[in-house]
């Protein structure tokens, strides 16, 4: 005979306890929202760690920037400096943030100087003790004033400068002068002229390209240049996203006929197939200052004497020329550094020393350094025209309202949303709502208030 | 210890906020409401279905064929099947990234014939479940064929002989004798393959990088969990997703265990 293990009364009591426990667990008091403490976390006054001017400084750099550390070591053998290579600067790398959060917990281990990812600005400059030290009190004002106009705007949060810009990646219009002369075309000066010429190219020289929209950086070239408010920061965690703004739709409508005419590439410009089949068909390509050497010379092996640069394109209706940018690195000094003097000297030297910056791979953000860099570029004999005046004038024309210092990457959103659509023949205009929603979703998920 | 402690820690994280306060199921309701949650689990659901079905059907069929008609050449065929599995996860994906690029691939003409002229057209998100199934089968099926072959060897010859004397053909022997006796091995394969498939991370991550970001960085639940932890610095949300995956894997494993009688003693 089966014997009941419990009496009905005690079974009911246990069930009641279980229900109460489950209910209290489900409705437990505290809030699960990670942003519950408020998103506008203003930085407190900067108080340096105890200083030791003889201590070693640790510099975290990406592989390209190890040359900067080597050059500084040669120039300053008296400074004890340790270089650590990490995935800094790589688009989407979260290594710095992950490690800094760990160091914040253990209370030690922070590097003194870092070459960060541009998205790192979003977290490293906020909070009661931001990881990045405010540099406007540590770097001479005369040095800060020497950076190209607007170059430090991206580094400025709440009126304080948290990073020194290493280089600028402002867009200009690159073109193949040999082909343009051969086809008898004039270099356009406005977006409208560029479109008209592109449509002519589609009819007269099919297969040639006047640009491409299949790269993640496409928004930085076309929509940033059009002053489209795809992401305008209005607070630490408040952003305006409006792709239906006329300054966005005018660019979409400009690109669509060119896409239909087949003169805008839909593959990524670094794609093996693009390099093999279309790299020698580029007639024009709006893009950043580094395209000259990195893309055309090193990537596509376009022969010397063919590639030239023209001023960034402007819309006929606009009073002034504004352009976008694709990249532009920066340096942080850690607010936890025990040798701020050496750390600040390092970041100042690598961004301003004329001997070093003239040999750097990209356009220096420090004005006087840019002159020597441009002279070195011209001396290389690669270009078909003098690119100096064009690049110099365009450097201060970057539209500074386009926010790159957000936790999310506009490039990644464009790549996953727009590139697949465009590669299957859809128009840019037809995807603007989808793109808008993708930005809003991503921003909201990361704690931004979107308006 | 290395299994229980991390699970307990993840469970604790999933029930608390960053200040260590108990939040009940708050983190779960938060991640369930995330617009990326449904699509990540839909992607992985489709992939796991394709992967498990193809694994079960093809591995068992190939093992039976090798054990039957192809017995003479089976050692060579088993070795060839096993070889792709020798490549570690990331390197096998890199090989496939080249194979799937119509410009660089030896099967480029075939891809172009289908209408795919660039890697970007091949690696569109809707193709990924099939692509990952092919990669997973190519790298993982070989070792399962070897295991199934070993399990088939464990079936007494007398049983097969008796069936044959009773007039059973190869198909009948396979369906009525070998498959039922392989049941526990198939269940074991299903449990491990499900757990591995549900945790897909390296493949979409590498394809995302190779496609210049065309594949979103939150394609699979594991990637979404990584995004929570290392982009949003939200370890509690990441832990909640990890617990969801754990519950799903345990549920699937329990179903397979009870259905196949994996822990039953006596007959197999």
Question: Can you walk me through this structure?
Answer:
The complex is a heterodimer of chains A (451) and B (268). With 451 residues, chain A is of the alpha/beta class. Chain A has 2 domains: 36-168 and 326-379, D-Maltodextrin-Binding Protein, domain 2 (3-Layer(aba) Sandwich), CATH 3.40.190.10; 170-325 and 402-450, D-Maltodextrin-Binding Protein, domain 2. Chain A is built from 17 helices and 17 strands. Chain A has helices at 8-26, 66-75, 95-106, 121-124, 141-145, 177-183, 191-204, 218-223, 246-260, 272-277, 291-299, 340-352, 354-357, 367-379, 388-395, 410-423, 432-445, and strands at residues 57-61, 81-85, 113-114, 156-157, 160-161, 164-165, 167-168, 171-176, 211-212, 232-235, 238-240, 264-265, 284-288, 307-310, 330-333, 363-364, 449-450. In chain A, strands 2-1-3-15-6 form a 5-stranded mixed beta sheet, covered by helices on one side. In chain A, strands 13-8-14 form a 3-stranded antiparallel beta sheet. In chain A, strand 1, helix 2 and strand 2 form a beta-alpha-beta unit. Residues 1-5 of chain A have low confidence and may be disordered. Chain B is mostly helical and 268 residues long. Chain B has a single domain (26-260), classed as Orthogonal Bundle (MetI-like fold). Chain B is 72% helix and 0% strand. Chain B contains 13 helices and no strands. Chain B has helices at residues 4-14, 26-33, 35-67, 74-82, 89-99, 108-114, 119-122, 128-153, 157-165, 170-198, 202-210, 221-230, 235-260. In chain B, helix 10 (170-198) packs antiparallel against helix 13. The longest helix of chain B is centred in the first third of the chain and has 33 residues, at 35-67. The two termini of chain B are 31 Å apart. The relative contact order of chain B is 0.14. The mean pLDDT of chain B is 86. Classes of the chains: A alpha/beta (451), B mainly alpha (268). Chains A and B meet through helix 1, helix 3, helix 10 and helix 16 of A and helix 2 and helix 7 of B. Chain A: This is Multiple sugar transport system substrate-binding protein. Chain A: Belongs to the bacterial solute-binding protein 1 family. Chain A: It is found in: Cell envelope.
């Amino acid at each position: 005979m089966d014997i009941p293990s419990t009496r009905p009364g005690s079974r009911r009591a246990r069930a009641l306890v279980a229900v109460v426990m489950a209910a209290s667990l489900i409705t437990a008091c505290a809030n699960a929202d990670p942003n519950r403490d408020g998103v506008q976390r203003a930085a407190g006054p900067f108080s340096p760690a105890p200083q030791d001017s003889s201590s070693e400084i640790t510099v975290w750099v990406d592989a390209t920037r190890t040359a900067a550390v080597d050059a500084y070591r040669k120039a300053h053998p008296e400074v004890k400096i340790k270089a650590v290579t990490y995935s800094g600067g790589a688009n989407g790398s979260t290594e710095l943030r992950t490690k800094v959060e760990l160091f914040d917990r253990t209370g030690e281990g922070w590097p003194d100087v870092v070459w960060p990812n541009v998205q790192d600005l979003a977290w490293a400059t906020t909070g009661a003790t931001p990881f990045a030290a405010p540099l406007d009190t540590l770097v001479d004002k005369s040095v800060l004033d020497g950076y190209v106009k607007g170059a430090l705007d991206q580094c400025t949060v709440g009126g304080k400068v948290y990073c020194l810009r290493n280089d600028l990646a402002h867009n200009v219009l690159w073109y193949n002068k040999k082909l343009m002369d051969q086809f008898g075309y004039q270099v356009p000066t406005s977006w409208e002229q560029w479109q008209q010429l592109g449509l002519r190219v589609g009819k007269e020289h099919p297969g040639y390209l006047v640009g491409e929209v299949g790269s993640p950086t496409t928004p930085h070239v076309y929509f940033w240049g059009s002053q489209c408010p795809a992401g305008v920061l209005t607070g630490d965690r408040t952003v305006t996203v409006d792709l239906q703004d006329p300054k966005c739709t005018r660019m979409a409508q400009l690109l669509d006929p060119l896409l239909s005419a087949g003169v805008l590439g839909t593959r990524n410009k670094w794609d093996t197939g693009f390099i093999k089949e279309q790299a020698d068909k580029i007639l024009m390509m709006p893009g950043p200052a580094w395209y000259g050497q990195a893309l055309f010379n090193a990537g596509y092996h376009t022969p010397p004497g063919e590639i030239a640069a023209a001023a960034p394109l402007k819309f006929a209706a606009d009073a002034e020329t504004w352009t976008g940018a694709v990249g532009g690195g920066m340096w942080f000094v850690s607010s936890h550094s025990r040798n701020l003097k050496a750390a600040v000297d390092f970041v100042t030297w690598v961004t301003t020393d004329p001997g070093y910056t003239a040999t750097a791979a990209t356009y220096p953000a420090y004005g006087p350094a840019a002159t020597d860099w441009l002279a070195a570029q011209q001396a290389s004999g690669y270009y078909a025209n003098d690119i100096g005046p064009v690049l110099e004038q365009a450097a201060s024309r970057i539209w500074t309202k386009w926010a790159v210092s957000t936790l999310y990457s506009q490039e990644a959103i464009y790549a996953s949303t727009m590139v697949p659509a465009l590669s299957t023949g859809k128009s840019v205009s037809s995807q603007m709502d989808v793109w808008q929603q993708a930005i809003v979703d991503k921003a909201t998920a990361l704690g931004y208030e979107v308006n | 210890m290395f299994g229980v402690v991390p699970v307990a820690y993840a469970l604790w994280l999933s029930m608390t906020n960053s200040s260590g306060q108990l939040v009940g199921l708050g983190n779960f309701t938060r991640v369930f409401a995330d617009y990326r949650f449904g699509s990540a689990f839909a992607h992985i659901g489709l992939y796991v279905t394709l992967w498990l079905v193809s694994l079960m059907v093809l591995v068992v069929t190939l093992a039976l064929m090798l054990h039957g008609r192809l017995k003479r050449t089976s050692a060579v065929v088993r070795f060839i099947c096993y070889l792709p599995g020798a490549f570690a996860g990331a390197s096998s994906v890199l090989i496939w990234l080249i194979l799937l690029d119509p410009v660089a691939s030896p099967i480029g003409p075939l891809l172009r014939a289908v209408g795919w002229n660039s890697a970007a057209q091949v690696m569109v998100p809707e193709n990924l479940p099939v692509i990952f199934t092919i990669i997973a089968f190519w790298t993982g099926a070989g070792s399962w064929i070897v295991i199934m072959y070993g399990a088939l060897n464990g079936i007494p010859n007398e049983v097969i002989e008796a069936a044959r004397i009773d007039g059973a053909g190869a198909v009948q022997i396979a369906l009525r004798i070998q498959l039922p006796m392989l049941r526990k091995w198939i269940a074991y394969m299903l449990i491990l393959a499900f757990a591995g498939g549900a945790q897909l991370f390296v493949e979409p991550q590498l394809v995302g990088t190779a496609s210049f970001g065309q594949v979103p960085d939150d394609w699979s639940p594991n990637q979404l969990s990584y995004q929570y932890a290392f982009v949003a610095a939200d370890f509690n949300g990441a832990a909640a997703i990890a617990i969801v995956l754990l519950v799903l894997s345990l549920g699937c494993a329990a179903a397979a265990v009870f259905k196949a009688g994996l822990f039953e003693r006596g007959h197999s």
